Amino acid sequence: MLLKFYFLASILILLSACSNDDGGSSGTLAVTGISKSVIDDPLIEGDRQVDVPTDVINAGNTYIIRGSGFATLKSISFNGLESTFNPTFVTDNAIVVSVDQKTPYYNEMDELKIVTNIGTLVYNVKIRPPFPNINGFPINPNPGDIITITGEYFLRPVVNFGTTTVEPISSTLTEIKVQVPNDIQYKNLSITNVSGTTVASQSFGSAIYDDAYTSIKAYDGLWNAADGYNVAYDKDAKQGTKSIQWKAGGWNGLYVGIDKTKVDMTKYKGIRINLKGEKTGTANMIVNGNYSATFSLAFKTDWTYIEIPFSAVGNPAEITEITFQESGNFGGNTILIDDFGFVLK
């Protein structure tokens, strides 16, 4: 959030510097340069740069278009697809725009088109795909397993398990098959395509539930057996292909025992979970039966990611049980749970 604040502050300073005193158009529509707002390779510590000149546009990223005649901007498009823009971030000499992730890039015209009240400008610039989008992969695989990674924009992909590069067995734009190398615990999956690198947020070995309960789970159950409980719900998932569907009665509970011998607490800083409700609601989370440190999980009718630091649930030295209690106060809810596990420090 702090980085976002600094970036927005720098953009506002930039736009102030680029503005004409009279607030009108210079009368000449021209592009003199393009900069990428932020360049930050997630695999290299401390390389973050802002406002970096470029001659390549990657869909799904934010750019600063410099020139003149932009004050009355009506539309801006890349390879024929319009990208939305915030007029607050437009002056006569600069446009800050987030390029639509769905911008076409294959066998296209490599064209930026700017339409204003004083005319239309077509500018030639290379348009390339977004960075990879990782939708799902087995989070707790074993060395030697052949796994499938699903997502988007896997164009000439390079796959890394931590710092270990693995040659794909096969790949398409949406699926990669690879064999898991040794020594992956507490490391992250990353994929690099022709545009850049994406690092999965989940570290290997950290999942309590990932399409199924993992070996970290010791036991599980319900306070009220009448509640519906499907641990392989295949109609909706945040990560992978399955989730837990819990048809929770009002103030009823679901508990998951943890095999503490399989969790090195010194490696983790908290618990992660994705929740989705049939109705917007809340659920209490209680760790190790410590009701004095109950944490309220607020979720919506689409997937909501929640990260709970250990400090918010009593700073447990070890975790033996995690309990969820429906707390919407309207008689119960159907709650989906997915990508449930620990967060690496």
Task: Please supply descriptive tags for the structure shown above.
Immunoglobulin-like; 345 residues; five-stranded antiparallel beta sheet; 1 helix; six-stranded antiparallel beta sheet; globular; 29 strands; mainly beta; Jelly Rolls; 3 domains
Description:
The protein has one helix and 29 strands. By secondary structure, the protein is mainly beta. The protein folds into three domains: 24-128, Immunoglobulin-like; 133-200, Immunoglobulin-like (Sandwich), CATH 2.60.40.10; 207-344, Sandwich (Jelly Rolls), CATH 2.60.120. The strands form seven sheets. Strands 19, 21, 22, 24, 27 and 29 form a six-stranded antiparallel beta sheet that branches. Strands 20-23-28-25-26 form a five-stranded antiparallel beta sheet, with no helix packed on it. Strand 5 (73-78) and strand 6 form a beta hairpin. The longest helix has 17 residues, at 2-18.
What topology does this entry show?
Layout: H1 2-18, E1 30-39, E2 49-53, E3 56-58, E4 62-68, E5 73-78, E6 81-82, E7 94-98, E8 111-116, E9 119-124, E10 126-128, E11 133-136, E12 146-152, E13 158-161, E14 164-166, E15 170-171, E16 175-179, E17 188-192, E18 197-203, E19 207-209, E20 217-222, E21 228-233, E22 243-249, E23 253-258, E24 268-277, E25 281-287, E26 295-299, E27 304-309, E28 321-326, E29 332-344
Parallel strand pairs: 3-10
Antiparallel strand pairs: 1-2, 1-4, 4-7, 5-6, 5-8, 8-9, 11-12, 12-16, 13-14, 13-17, 15-16, 17-18, 19-29, 20-23, 21-22, 22-29, 23-28, 24-27, 24-29, 25-26, 25-28
